[in-house]
Design goal:
It comes from Acer yangbiense. This protein has about 625 residues and is α+β, with helices and mostly antiparallel strands. The protein has 15 helices and 31 strands. It has five domains: about 140 residues, Transferase(Phosphotransferase), domain 1 (Orthogonal Bundle); about 90 residues, Agglutinin, subunit A (Orthogonal Prism); about 140 residues, Agglutinin, subunit A, CATH 2.90.10.10; about 140 residues, no CATH class; about 90 residues, no CATH class. Helix 5 packs parallel to helix 7. The C terminus is likely disordered.
């Protein structure tokens, strides 16, 4: 999923917590659709009132009167359903029991805990059966309630103590797992356990602000966590808008509405977003998002505060030059961006125009900026903008001596002859430490192994690393020798009679697709033992989807070679080819090139009426023109 896995209002709540889609996610969406069909109301219609959506509204109505199932009089059932059913439906001719049953199944599909949701197979069985679905839903509701209360008691008794207020005075203490919560329940402040930083959490327990500051204050001062997520220190009973101190003046990796991101021309203080080191460590990472310090009204993303890898383009009063979709986003989502520049300061700030929503912009540990929005009533967050769109466009995203490839998972891998500098960091998707040599170069040890000196290993289809040094030579052999004789030289490339060498760490290496005109061959210096090992490991393994696409595009190749060996070739070759072609079509990088589910069904049924044009390309088939389904 590239951004949001579904449409807002139909997405299962657990997706907001894990950002992962499971087999029960579609069951929730199906339940919402059933409710929408019967009630004719949109999932997040304002008609439901504060803190309610269609799921809460239907569930409360459906489960509040269990006696309706035992009512013999259909009109009595009708009275219970009248407030739910679309008025345009003629109740006098409707099958009340069927409507009742469908609503109960919808409630079952949208239960809070994924484990309690039925499978789609089970949903079909319930629609066909005469089982009392309401009783099943009531049992699950009661079990879920019991589970919730047990968890809640454990949470509060063993792990957590909350002040139950948004204010803590100077003579009160906040320690351990104690927290204060903003008045609307959206933000929570507490201590971050690993290093006791003071941390601001959103309602999903995701830290969005932390500090190492230590303040000495008098007893006449209190700290208040405001509804917008701003922690302020102010004098008691002082309702002015000028606090003694506020967290919005010290941003970390999250930009909230009302916060200024820019710089003070008098104090030279630059308020920038700085990424976390990784998803568990809030210490400053390598990436920052800041207003151009040279004075232009554009934003930059920097690696190590120096290497620029993205810019927004200058602000023209409505959008940024290189980010024109900001206008579209402002027209689609409830927020406005404004720019202020005077003799004292220059900054951007944004505001939310609908109080029911909250929006945040996060400088991620991956070096990408993502913008999130959420509905306060449901307390869930969804991503609606991400840049750079490709993680490998971030400078040095994989650290030194590693390769970034959008075609693999994980996207970072060490060069042959190198290993992860920190396996623990890599497990946290923190690749900034990069890779280190498995075996030191011979030139470092001033020795030879079995009479062999250091050598080079070719890496094809690579984007050349930054900052090469040009060396005047007359041949590729001279280029290689120049690098070999310099122990600080780690790689060379020879293209169009030009020799380039690199000294020290190799950063920002990207693996490109076959046929990409920017792809070059880079020769990495290795010890002789590592060159031999890399050869044995067959480092030129091909990405499976690309290989599979080449097989199915070639009518002369046995497509059954793609089959799992356990099937022992027992399959229809034409069926296998058709399924593989559909798979290649479904994984196109450009979503406009992907088929609809209706097209997929018709193709799998053998109705060959769709044509994939020559512009159809993807990570799975970048080198192939897949005219796979000629019109019959």
């Amino acid at each position: 999923m590239s951004r949001v896995a579904g449409s807002y209002g139909y997405i299962a709540p657990e997706y907001a917590y894990s950002l992962k889609v499971n087999e029960k996610s579609d069951v929730y969406s199906f339940g919402v659709v059933l409710m929408e069909l019967i009630t004719s109301k949109r999932p997040n219609d304002t008609w439901f009132g504060d803190n309610k959506d269609i799921v809460k509204w239907v569930t409360e109505a459906a489960l509040s009167s269990p006696e309706r199932k035992t009512t013999e009089n259909a009109s009595s059932c009708c009275r219970d359903l009248r407030k739910l059913v679309d008025p345009r439906m003629q109740l006098s001719t409707s099958d009340y029991e069927e409507i009742d049953k469908v609503l109960d199944i919808a409630v079952l599909c949208t239960t809070s805990f994924p484990i309690n949701k039925p499978s789609m197979r089970r949903v079909v069985e319930l629609l066909k059966s005469s089982q009392n679905v309401l009783q099943l839903a009531m049992d699950i509701k009661n079990n879920s309630r019991l589970m919730f209360y047990v968890l809640l008691m454990c949470f509060f008794i063993k792990f957590h103590v909350s002040f139950g207020t948004d204010t803590i005075s100077a003579n009160q203490s906040l320690s351990g797992d104690q927290t204060i919560v903003s008045a609307d329940g959206i933000f929570e402040l507490g201590f971050f356990t690993p290093d006791s930083n003071l941390v601001l959490f959103n309602e999903s327990r995701i830290p969005i602000w932390s500090t190492n500051l230590s303040l000495t204050i008098s007893s006449s001062v209190e700290a208040v966590l405001l509804d917008e997520g701003n922690l302020v220190l102010k004098k008691l009973s002082d309702n002015s808008s000028n606090p003694l101190w506020q967290s919005f003046d010290y941003p970390t990796h999250t930009w909230l509405p009302g916060m200024k991101i820019g710089f003070n021309k008098r104090t030279k203080v630059n308020r920038r977003l700085v990424s976390w080191k990784n998803k568990e460590d809030p210490s400053p990472g390598h990436f920052s998002f800041e207003l151009d310090p040279s004075g232009s009204n554009q934003y930059l993303m920097l690696w190590n505060r120096s290497e620029r890898y993205w810019s927004s383009g200058e602000w023209n009063g409505g959008t940024f030059k290189f980010t024109p979709n900001v206008t579209y986003l402002q027209n689609t989502y409830p927020f406005n961006v404004s720019f202020v520049s005077n003799e004292n300061e220059s900054y951007f700030m944004y505001s939310v125009t609908d109080p029911n929503f909250i929006i945040g912009l996060i400088m991620g540990a991956s070096g990408q900026i993502k913008q999130m929005f959420g509905l306060k009533a449901s307390k869930t967050w969804f991503q609606f903008w991400l840049t750079p769109a490709q993680a490998c466009e971030v400078y040095a995203s994989c650290g030194a001596f590693s390769i970034c490839s959008e075609q693999t998972q994980p996207l970072c891998a060490c060069l042959a002859g190198f290993k992860q500098n920190s396996e623990q960091d890599w497990n946290l998707q923190d690749y900034s430490g990069g890779c280190v040599r498995k075996t030191q170069l011979q030139c470092v040890n001033n020795s030879l192994t079995d009479g062999k000196s250091d050598g080079f290993l070719a890496n094809a289809n690579m984007l050349l690393p930054n900052y090469p040094q040009s060396v005047p030579v007359r041949s590729v052999e001279e280029c290689e020798k120049t690098c070999l004789n310099d122990c600080s030289c780690t790689a060379y490339a020879y293209e169009n009679d030009e020799c380039s060498i690199w000294l020290g760490n190799l950063l920002n290496q990207r693996k490109l697709s076959k046929g990409d005109p920017n792809g070059k061959t880079v020769y990495i210096k290795l010890s002789p033992s590592e060159i031999s090992s890399a050869a044995n490991d067959n480092i030129n393994k091909e990405y499976f989807p690309t290989w599979a696409a080449s097989i199915i595009a070639n009518e002369g190749v046995d497509v059954l070679s793609l089959l799992d060996p356990k099937l022992e070739g027992n399959a229809d070759a034409e069926e296998v080819r058709r399924i593989c072609k559909v798979a290649c079509w479904c994984i196109q990088d450009d979503e406009t090139h992907r088929p609809s589910m209706a097209q997929i069904v018709r193709i799998l049924e053998g109705v060959r009426i769709y044509t994939l044009g020559s512009n159809t390309t993807s990570a799975a088939a970048t080198s192939y023109s897949l005219n796979l389904f000629p019109k019959s």
